[in-house]
Design brief:
The chain is an all-alpha fold and about 40 residues long. It has one domain. The longest helix has 12 residues. The radius of gyration is 14 Å and the shape is elongated. The N and C termini lie far apart (about 30 Å).
């Protein structure tokens, strides 16, 4: 029997569905990249 967590894809493991993310420093280079990544998630 396979482990359910093993079968999950990377995007499913780090899904933000139903969660709220707060990013401070979003105006800087790294903060902006993180915000864009979270928006895609």
């Amino acid at each position: 029997m396979k482990n359910k967590e093993f079968e999950m894809g990377v995007l499913e493991k780090f899904s933000l569905k139903g969660k709220i993310a707060i990013v401070t420093g979003g105006a800087g280079l790294y903060g902006r990249c993180i915000v864009e990544g979270l928006a895609e998630a």
